[in-house]
Every structure is written in structure tokens, then in C-alpha cells.
Amino acid sequence: MLPRREFSKSKMSMYLRTLCERELYLSLFSNNPGELEKAGVPVPLKSRPGVQLITASGREFEYEQYNVLCSSLPNNVYAKSNGTAPVISSGRFPRSRCPR
Asked: pTM, whole model, 2 decimals?
């Protein structure tokens, strides 16, 4: 027996944007893991696998690109901590010392 299904405007809207019948089918079921497992329907993932790895790689790429920019324009780059600290939108940044 399949678990209870719910249909709403947002689910219909998502289907019309994606035209993905699988996503529509899976979105109709409640998110109760016990009911889903009994019915043989896959349980939704709580988070996307590998996101932390992609985020870390992206930050490393940003730091490398910052160092390239800093080397190319040493007198025109302003930042704190050579670009490895979070950016604060208010306040003035001192001239950075670019790594050589």
C-alpha cells in the first residue's frame, strides 16, 4: 500500500517548470520515512552529498585567484588577511601585503 499523497499548487508549479515526471511522483508522497520505506519509495536525502567538498574546492580556487590578482595588481588590491578572511561590507580595508 502506498503512503498518503498530497497535491498542491507548488508541486504542480514545480512540475510545469521541470517537466520531470519522476520528481512529481516522488514529491506527491509525505516525507514520513517509515511510510516511505514500507511502500518501497526512496527516502529523500537530508542534504546533498559532496557539498562540503565542492565548497572547500571553491574556496581554495578563490584564494588561488586572489593571489593571481594580487600579484598582477599589487598596488590596487585592498583586503584583510590576504583575501582569506570573510569580507565585511562596511569599513575601509587597509592595503594588503600580497604574497610573493
From this structure: 0.38
